[in-house]
Structure formats: structure tokens, C-alpha cells
Design goal:
The protein is of the alpha/beta class. The protein has five helices and eight strands; from the N terminus they run βαβαβββαβαββα. The longest helix has 21 residues.
């Protein structure tokens, strides 16, 4: 019998494309953090707030420098082993705040390069599938490597309730699916890193 070998711990940067305080996407990230503390212990998730980032404007850059808030954000992405995007869908695409954050971290040198990533989405209808597809397209240029499965989309408005009045995920079925995403992200991150 092989000895029980501990899996390496990976650091995950979690970004929400929705800035609203009661956002369901922020609720998904809170649920992911809770799962990482309770049952997916090989992952450390840090929520990275993108609300304070200025709109991308290269006039704000100096020779190899960025505004302090942008530099701090870029450093968090560089330090992470992988990224968890909580991406709402606006007009069949990625929300503007998330695209802005992606663009800032892509400025040379690209902070996203060679990172594993996963996307979780919620909303009406298909629960954000088109935004996920678009984010994957953007990720190709950035050298982001997304897990393919499981796909996490959640129709937030279809009964029974998936979130409470504060935007916290209450659906046990959705939490189990989210746990599967985190486990897949852990495994895929180690593969991308060659471990």
C-alpha cells in the first residue's frame, strides 16, 4: 500500500466580474472560499477586488510601471497558481469590470501567462454560458489554460432558490458542483505546472 502523500497546496486568485455588493457572483466566490476551508483543503482562495482599478489607459503607465492599485492587482495575479473567474454575462459577453481587469494584467509582462483557470457563472437563462465561451476566447491570447469540465453555470432565478437575500449560495446541489470545479482546478493546475 502506497503511503498517503499530501497534495501540493495551490493559491487561487478569485475575481468577480460583478461589482454589486449583493452579487451572486461574489456569493459563488464566498462559497468557493468556504469549500476550500472545509473540504477542498489543497486550495487557498483569495478574493481579489477589481472595483478600484481605473479604466485601462496606457497614459497612466510609466516605463515599466503602473498605477499603484494596478501594480498591486498584477502582483496578486502573478503570485497565484491559478485563477477562478466568477463571470456574469452582459450582452452575450464578459462584464466590463472583468474585461478591464484582464486587460490591465495582460499589459507586458503578461501576468496571466501559463496559469490554469476555471470559470463559474450564474444568471438567467443559460446561466452565463456565452460569457464563459467569450472569456475562453480571450484566454487563448493570454496563454490562460481553462479546465474544460465540469462546466459550472447556474440559473439563479429558476426555483428553488439558489441564493439567499444577501447573495450567499444556499443550494447544496450547486455547492457540490462548485466543489467538483475546485477539485478539477487543483488537478489541472498541477498538470499545467508539471507537478
Amino acid at each position: 500500500m502506497a503511503p498517503n502523500v499530501a497534495k501540493p497546496i495551490i493559491k487561487v486568485a478569485a475575481l468577480s466580474g460583478s461589482l454589486r455588493k449583493g452579487s451572486y457572483h461574489r456569493g459563488l466566490i464566498r462559497a468557493a472560499i468556504q469549500l476550500s476551508q472545509e473540504s477542498v483543503k489543497d486550495i487557498q482562495i483569495e478574493y481579489i477586488d477589481i472595483e478600484q482599478l481605473p479604466m485601462l489607459n496606457t497614459d497612466l503607465e510609466g516605463p515599466g510601471t503602473f498605477p499603484p492599485v494596478v501594480e498591486a492587482f498584477r502582483q496578486k495575479i502573478k503570485e497565484a497558481d491559478s485563477v477562478l473567474f466568477a463571470s456574469p454575462e452582459y450582452n452575450f459577453s464578459i462584464a466590463a469590470p472583468l474585461k478591464n481587469a484582464i486587460d490591465w494584467a495582460s499589459r507586458p509582462p503578461n501576468a496571466w501567462a501559463n496559469k490554469a483557470a476555471a470559470i463559474i457563472s450564474t444568471g438567467g437563462g443559460a446561466g452565463g454560458e456565452r460569457a464563459q465561451y467569450h472569456l475562453r476566447q480571450v484566454g487563448v491570447f493570454l496563454d490562460l489554460h481553462f479546465i474544460n469540465k465540469p462546466l459550472f453555470t447556474l440559473n439563479a432565478f429558476e426555483p428553488p432558490a439558489k441564493f439567499d437575500k444577501d447573495g450567499n449560495l444556499v443550494s447544496e446541489e450547486a455547492k457540490e458542483k462548485l466543489k467538483e470545479v475546485l477539485l478539477a482546478l487543483h488537478e489541472f493546475t498541477l498538470r499545467v505546472q508539471g507537478k
